[in-house]
Amino acid sequence: MKYVDDFRDRGHAETLAHAIRRIVTRPWTIMEVCGGQTHAIVRFGLDELLPGLVTLVHGPGCPVCVTPVTLIDHAIALASIPRVILCTFGDMLRVPGSQGDLCGVKATGGDVRIVYSPLDALALARMNPDREVVCFAVGFETTAPAYAMAAIQARRLGLTNVSLLVAQVLVPPAIEAILSAPGCRVQGFLAAGHVCTVMGYEEYEDLARRYRVPLVVTGFEPIDVLEGIALLVGQLEDGRAVVENQYTRSVRREGNVAAQAVLREVFEPTLRAWRGIGDIPFSGLRLTAAYADFDAAVRFRDALAQSGSVGGEDPDCRSGLVLQGLIKPPDCSAFATRCTPERPLGAPMVSSEGACAAYYRYRRDARPGVNS
Amino acid sequence: MADTPEMKLHCPLPVRNATVQLAHGGGGRLMQNLIRDIFVRSFSNPLLAQMHDGATWPVSEGTLAFTTDSYVVQPLFFPGGDIGSLAVHGTVNDLAMCGAQPLWLSAGFILEEGLAIETLQRIVDSMAQAARDAGVSIVTGDTKVVDKGKGDGVFINTAGIGVVPPGVMVGPQRVQSGDAILVSGDLGSHGVAVLSMRESLTFAGDIASDSAPLHRVIADLIANGIEMHCLRDLTRGGLASALNEIASAAGMTLSIDERAIPIRAEVQGACEVLGLDPLYVANEGRFVAFVPEAQADHAIAVMRDHAVATEAVRIGEVAGRESSIVVLKTVLGTHRILDLLSGEQLPRIC
Question: How many Å separate Cα A303 from the centre of its chain?
Fold first, then answer.
C-alpha cells in the first residue's frame, strides 16, 4: 500500500542498516523522543538491524505517560460529578491516579466518553445543553491547536457548558531538562516529526547550538526511523551538531504557522509537573486570560478542592527513569511481574505510546537475552 | 357517515403494530401474533411447527457438538451482513470449528420497546435466508421485550447443535510440532466494515464484512482426508488472539510470517488511520487451521475451491515446545511477540 509499504520495505531497511554499520566507529547513545517512534522501533525490531555500537534509549514523548497524578485525580473527580460529561482519548481511561482510574469511574456511572477529536466535545455540548462537557486536553504541540480551535469555536458558538482540563505539554523544554540533568548519556536526538509538523524546528536549532547536540526531525515508519538514525550517526561521527530534517514530506522549518497562531491565541507556556520526572519550567500550557472562562480547573475549583487528590506515585514504579532514558523497561524489577497492562503501576505500561507497554507487548520473551 | 375520511382518521385499527411494544413479550395475544407472523413464518420447518416448549427429535449414534453465542453488534445492518445473518454464521462456524456438521439452532430475541416491526422483519428474513443457505433449521426460540432505553434495538442469542463425523477430533491438544498453520483468507474486513458504518468513515470505501458460513469448507477438508489438528474461527480479537489461545492451550510456540498474512489494502489503510492492528480485528468468515506439514498444500488447494476461502495461504508453523508464545517474523525480517490484547480494541463488533 502506498505510503505504508514504501516505508516498511525490507530491502530498503537492510540498505540503511548496512549504511549505518559502515559509518559507525564508536559507541553512540541516541534518544527517540516520541512514543510513536519507540513503538515503531520495538514493533518492527529495528534495534535488531542496528550495529551493537548504536544504543537507542526511549524518551518522554508519551503525553499520557507524563500527565501528573494530580491531573488524573482531577479528571476522575470531574467525571464523578453527575452533570459532567468527561471527554478523553481512550488511552487515558486506565492510567492509574492516586486512588483509581477513569475506567473505574465509568463503571460506577460516571459519564466518560472517548472522543477522536476535541471538536466532538463541542457537538456533545450542543446536544446536551443541560450538562457540563469537560475535555481532558492531553498531548504535545500536535494536539494543542485542535483543543485551541475547540475553545475558539465554543466561544463563536456561544457554548457556555464546555471547558478544558488542560494537561498539554511541550517537547523542547523536556529535551532541555534531559540534556541538563546530571548523568545524561544521550548524545543525539530523533525529534518527533508530528510535533515539528506543527511547530517547525527553529527552537531545536537553538538547542543544538547551546548543547552541541545533533537533532534529526524524524517520522514514524521503520524507514523513517532508520534514515533518522543514519543521519544522526553521520553527524556524531563527523562531530557536527545541527538540526536535520528527515521527515520532509510533512515538516517545514517554520512549521504550520496558522496552527501556531491558533495555539498562541488560546494557550501560553507555564510551569508543568511531568509524571515521574518533576517540575519543568515553561514545559506546559495553560489557557490565556482571554480564555480563562473555559478552564475546567477554575470552573470546578470547589469540587476539585474537595476531591482530596494526594498525588501519590506507586513507590515501585520506576517510570521516571524510563521516561528520561536512564533505564529500559525490562531493567525495572516490577516489569511484567507486579506491573502489567492489566494491573499497571505507572502510565507507560498503559498508554499505547508508553515504552513499558511496547516492551511488554512485543518483546516480553520473544528473544530471551536481547530484550534490554 | 361511517366511511368518511374523518372517521377513519379517528378510528385507526392497524392490522399490525409498527413498533415492538412491551406486550409483545407479555405472553398474550400480541406475543402469539408476533411469533406466528414473524418468526414461525420466516423460520418455517417441521420441528419448529411442533410449537411446543422445545423441539424434540430422535438421536442417532455419533458425537454431538453444542455451542452458544450472543450477538449485540451495532449498527444492526452493515455492509455485507446484519445482526441476523451474523447470529446464524457465528454459531454455525463455532460448530464447524469442532469439526461438526451444524444442524439445529435456537434463536433467543431480546427486543427493545419501540423497535420498528419492519426492522425486526428484515433481521428475521435475513436470519432465515442465512439458515437456509447454511442448511440448518431454527427449531426453537424465545422472545423478551425490555423497556425503551434498556436495550439497543435487538440482541440475539443463538445456540447450535451439530454432529461430528466418526473419527474426527479437533482441538489444541492435538497440535504437533511442525504443523503448518493456514489461514482461510484476508483478515479484518468484518471489523472495519462495522466500524466504518458506525463511525461514518467514508474513506473505508467498499469494505464489506466477510461474514459467511464455514462448515462446508471444513467438511470438504475432512472428506479429503486432511487431518485437522486444530481449527479456530477468527472472531473477536482476530488472528492474534486465536493464535495465542491455541499456543497457550497446546503449550507450543507458534512462528508466523507477517508478510504471508493476507490483508486488503483498504483494510490496512483504514486500520492505519484508526490506530488498529488488523491482526486483532474481528472476522466472521475466516478461520485458522493447523494441519500436518505434508498435507498443507493439499489442504490449501481444497480450501481455495470454496468461495469463502479462495485466498487460503500458509502463514507459519508450530515451532516447538519452548514456551506458549506466538513469535512474529516482521515485514523487515526481524522478530517480535504477537501478544494478546490487554483491553477491548473494538466493542460491539459481533
Answer: 28
Contact A342 B272 (CB under 8 A): no
CB–CB of B331 and A367 under 8 A? no
CATH tag for B172-337 (out of 3.90.650.10, 3.20.20.150, 3.40.190.10, 3.40.1180.10): 3.90.650.10
> From CA A236, how far away is CA A24, in angstroms rounded?
9
Q: Which of A44, A365, A367 is opposite residue B330, by nearest beta carbon? A: A44
> What is the full DSSP assignment across B279-325?
GGS--SS-EEEEE-GGGHHHHHHHHHTSGGGTT-EEEEEEEESS-S-
Yes or no, beta carbons of A44 and B342 under 8 Å apart:
no
Tell me the average pLDDT across A344-358.
Answer: 87
Q: What are phi and psi of A121, to 5 degrees?
A: -65, -35
Whether the pTM exceeds 0.95: the reply is no
Distance CA B334, CA B332 (A): 6
Q: What angle do CA A288, A289, A295 make, to 5 degrees?
A: 75
| Cα–Cα distance for residue pair B302/A304, rounded to 1 Å | 65
Q: Write down the residue that cell numbers 494526594 correspond to.
A: A310
Interface of A with B in 14-73 (CB under 8 A): 14, 42-46, 48-49
Order of strands, sheet of B137-146, starting from the edge strand that comes earlier in the sequence:
B63-71, B154-164, B101-112, B137-146
In CATH, which of 1.10.760.10, 3.30.43.10, 2.60.40.1220, 3.40.50.11750 is domain A5-61+178-245? 3.40.50.11750
Dist. CA A255–CA A276, nearest whole Å: 30
Which residues are within 8 A (CB) of B253 and not within 5 positions of it... i.e. 6 or more apart?
A: B247, B318, B319, B320, B321, B322, B323, B324, B325, B326, B327
Q: Looking at residue A320, what is its pLDDT?
A: 87
Q: pLDDT above 70 covers what percent of chain B?
A: 92
Among A16-25, A204-213, B163-172, B253-262, which stretch is predicted with the lowest mean pLDDT?
Answer: B163-172
With 90 as the cut, is the pLDDT of residue B4 above it? no
Mean pLDDT of the B310-332 span: 94
Enter the C-alpha cell of residue A50.
Answer: 542496528
CA nearest B334 in A: which residue? A45
Mutate to test the interface with B, among A2, A48, A114, A353 (most CBs of B within 10 A): A48
Who among B272, B335, B342 is closest to A341 (CB)? B342
Q: What number does CATH give the domain B15-164?
A: 3.30.1330.10
Q: What pLDDT does residue A311 have?
A: 63
Looking at chain B, which residues constitute the CATH 3.90.650.10 domain(s)? 172-337
Residues 6+ positions from A158 with CB-CB distance below 8 Å: none
